[in-house]
Amino acid sequence: MRICLLTADPGHPLLAAVTGLLTPDHRVETLDPGAAGPGPDLSALADVYLLKARTPRALALAALLEEHGAPVLNSAAATARCQDRVAMAAVARAAGLPFAATRAVATLGELAAAGAPDGPLVIKSRFSRRRDLVTRADSAVRLRELAADWAEEPVVVQDFTPNSGWDHKLWVVDGQLFAALRRSELAPDGRGPNLPLPVGELPAGWTAAALQVGEVFGLDVYGVDLLDAGGGAPLIVDINAFPGIRGQAGAPEALAALALRTAARGRAGGADERKVSQVSEK
């Protein structure tokens, strides 16, 4: 099989581990969506593409590959559904998922101009990307400080939910669940390393919610950030397509198996299409 990584960072620990598992018997290539030069040879597509990128160029390239019959994990459409946090929240809440109430503000400058908030707020860039804004603001002073650097940034606002200060990081690869604890992005001392969290110790409602995310958003490889909102009630605060899933035993193996299974289905489907075409030509 030919497996192509759509990424600017093939050395990422998860991708490097998957490459190591696949290369004894299969060919693994890398295509940087942001690189200059000619695009992929659409007459010689790989058997499957792993979309570990979320820039507009990466999404456009993935959509182009799909249009020409190549399977992409995750699909361009599913990845895009996790980029706009307003749309993300709307899709999740419409499906009954316990997603934090989220409202859009045109710019952070507009939010700051409105004055002091009624209570602590979590403010995030509307469009998820590397080094985007995720912070807490409790006062007009803090909002003005943020606006000094992010005045024109489109943002979303969520009411701050009192919690333990730990994010529950849940990752899913083809229905297989992995989990860890990590200090919140809002923690004043930084996030620190992931801590082990046995999946079997998660409440059943948490695992069910994480698995439902995949069905609702059409994702095969994704992450769900959960808070304990009190009494063990889960609150989803973010969803990420194709996250890093660092340090999770079994995750590279699950991803390698998914890639091969998807590639095999793509080959079979391509053969069926060729047969149909040949019959119709006769």
UniProtKB/TrEMBL annotation:
InterPro entries given in the database record: ATP-grasp_RimK-type
GO cellular component terms, semicolon-separated: cytoplasm
Gene Ontology molecular function, alphabetical: ribosomal S6-glutamic acid ligase activity
GO annotation terms (biological process): SOS response
Entry-linked Pfam families: RimK (PF08443)
Domain ATP-grasp fold RimK-type: 119-247
Tree of life domain: Bacteria
Annotated PANTHER family: BETA-CITRYLGLUTAMATE SYNTHASE B-RELATED, RIBOSOMAL PROTEIN S6 MODIFICATION PROTEIN
Protein's name according to its UniProt entry: ATP-grasp fold RimK-type domain-containing protein
Organism: Streptomyces lydicamycinicus
